[in-house]
Design goal:
Layout: E1 15-17, E2 24-26, H1 27-37, E3 53-54, H2 71-133, H3 138-156, H4 170-191, H5 201-205, E4 208-213, E5 224-229, E6 236-241, E7 245-250, E8 255-261, E9 269-272, E10 278-282, E11 288-292, E12 297-302, E13 309-314, E14 320-325, E15 329-334, E16 340-345, E17 352-357, E18 363-368, E19 373-377, E20 382-387, E21 394-399, E22 405-410, E23 414-419, E24 424-430, E25 437-442, E26 448-453, E27 456-460, E28 465-470, E29 477-482, E30 488-493, E31 498-502
Antiparallel strand pairs: 1-2, 1-3, 4-31, 5-6, 6-7, 7-8, 9-10, 10-11, 11-12, 13-14, 14-15, 15-16, 17-18, 18-19, 19-20, 21-22, 22-23, 23-24, 25-26, 26-27, 27-28, 29-30, 30-31
Length: about 500
């Protein structure tokens, strides 16, 4: 028999018993009555709250209303329960993926730490042996000096590395000339035929978004600013972000290989060495870092500039790095020794914005904040040509692999193509009003040109025909690179994603 409140005639949620009348009441109702009248509502006898006796009864399950017992209502109830189950499963999968990424990152960090400890132990042992015999080893001394420089720079935040110019020796110049001669001959051979593996224009038109990876950089400071692809291992992609880190990502396994932490400001320029597991990064913190990917450690810290580093380009020899800065200088440094070979001031009234080596490596282009594109001769360290015509700071430049074309972009919603043989602008790709261009890239064969900015666009060179437009990014696209033989395309964006495009 169900208990019923003597006042409300309903089943009470918290039943209590009055010792005066023996009746059952809802606690909140009888408490209000006693506070106002001071007596039992049934008998009128004096009653106090502490005299009420709580009745222990099992929890009462209220029956469902009649409307809930119909077949449609039952089906809806089951659908709601199914939806809730699916949402819960989706949340669990997300949490599992996050946990896997964090575990993978922790394992890589542990492995890198073990490698560094082993290397340092080996170096300490070798140094002690050298000290005991009073025959210091040159290699050990150099490594110790580099580590001391890096540690001092980290601690003070100042330019502690010597910036004296070692000069362009005859040996360096001959090395550059020999490499250029070889590259010129190879390019002439390649220029006669298009690689058989090169993806056709029709297939480019059929490119789809194959993957989107949002977890490479911190969500607290969103935005990926730049990327590069490892030429020897196309599965590895390097990105730099607003979170001050550079990340090496394997697109095939969809795993983070290394997170490179050390810059004190955002990473705006990255280069993956084509022949080694080494990367180079530049930042507004005025430093250039050379990293060893397996250990995630800084091998060399270059401080060639007094202002933010705005451009980086690796020389075809793989031994030297070109850099530009807002300090209005370009610098040429040895990434093997960390020496600054030469640092030359530009005539620009304001800073430099970008830099790119010509495929032969004897000349290079730089962009300025006052709309100028300049060609410099590396051996003579002289400005040999200027390309005016843009308005606004130069945002990107890219040489075609054929060595004849140069593509440039600025804050004027257009891309200009220059003929380096005739030193003139022969084509202007006019984009939509307000279109921003952040990056340009020719594929290795020089057949296609990709533009990243307000969206992603691919053009067929010579005809300069638009082949494909991607609007998948939800924010400004900041970087674009072709895979080998244009088999795939990778882009980064301020929406914190790395996207991959190709044939499904």
């Amino acid at each position: 028999m169900a208990l019923v409140c003597a006042i409300s005639n309903e089943v009470p949620d918290v039943p209590v018993l009055s010792p005066k009348s023996g009746s059952i009441f809802e606690r909140r109702l009888i408490e209000k009555y006693v506070n106002e009248n001071g007596c039992d509502p049934i008998t009128g006898d004096e009653l106090k709250l502490e005299e009420l006796i709580e009745v222990k009864v099992p929890a009462i399950v209220k029956p469902k209303p009649p409307s809930a017992t119909s077949i449609p209502a039952t089906l809806k109830s089951m659908q709601d329960e199914w939806d809730a189950l699916m949402l819960y499963a989706f949340t669990q999968r997300q949490q599992l993926q996050t946990a896997r990424q964090e575990l993978s990152h922790a394992l890589y960090q542990h492995d890198a730490a073990c490698r560094v400890i082993a290397r340092l132990n080996k170096e300490v042992t070798a140094a002690r042996e050298a000290l005991a015999t009073l025959k210091p080893q040159a290699g050990i001394t150099q490594v110790v000096q580099q580590q001391q420089i890096a540690v001092a720079a980290e601690a003070t935040g100042n330019a502690t590395q010597p910036v004296e110019q070692a000069g362009m020796s005859a040996e360096v110049i001959q090395k550059l000339q020999d490499k250029a001669t070889v590259l010129t001959q190879e390019r002439k051979k390649r220029g006669r035929t298009v690689p058989e593996e090169l993806v056709s224009a029709d297939k480019i038109r059929g490119f789809l978004t194959l993957a989107s990876h949002p977890g490479l950089h911190s969500a607290s400071v969103p935005g990926i600013l730049t990327l590069d692809i490892n030429c020897s291992d196309q599965s590895r992609i390097l990105t730099g972000g607003n979170d001050k880190n550079a990340t090496v990502f394997n697109k095939d396994t969809e795993q983070i290989v290394a997170v490179l932490k050390g810059h004190t400001k955002k990473v705006t320029k990255v280069i993956y060495h084509p022949d080694e597991d080494t990367v180079i990064t530049g930042s507004p913190d005025t430093s250039i870092r050379i990293w060893n990917v397996p250990t995630s450690q800084t091998v060399l810290l270059l401080r060639s500039h007094e202002g933010p580093v705005t451009g980086l380009s690796l020389h075809p020899t793989g031994d030297y790095i070109l850099s530009t800065s807002t300090d209005r200088h370009w610098a040429f440094s040895d990434i093997r020794t960390g020496r600054l070979l030469t640092k030359v001031p530009d005539t620009a009234e304001i800073g430099l914005t970008t830099a790119q080596f010509h495929p032969d490596g004897l000349i290079f282009g730089i962009g300025t904040e006052d709309s100028q594109v300049k060609i410099w001769d590396l051996k003579e360290q002289s400005n040999v040509a200027n390309f005016p015509g843009h308005t606004g700071p130069i945002s990107a430049i890219s040489f075609s692999e054929n060595g004849y074309y140069l593509a440039t972009a600025a804050d004027d919603s257009c891309v200009k193509l220059w003929d380096l043989r005739k030193l003139k602008n022969f084509k202007t790709i006019q984009l939509d009003d307000g279109y921003e261009v952040k990056d340009l890239c020719f594929d290795q064969s020089g057949t296609y040109l990709a533009i990243a900015g307000t969206d992603i666009r691919i053009y067929l060179c010579k005809q300069w025909q638009e082949l494909k437009v991607f609007n998948d990014h939800t924010a400004m696209a900041t970087g674009i690179r072709f895979g080998k033989h244009a088999q795939f395309l990778a882009s980064t964006s301020m929406d914190r994603t790395l996207k991959l495009y190709g044939i499904e």
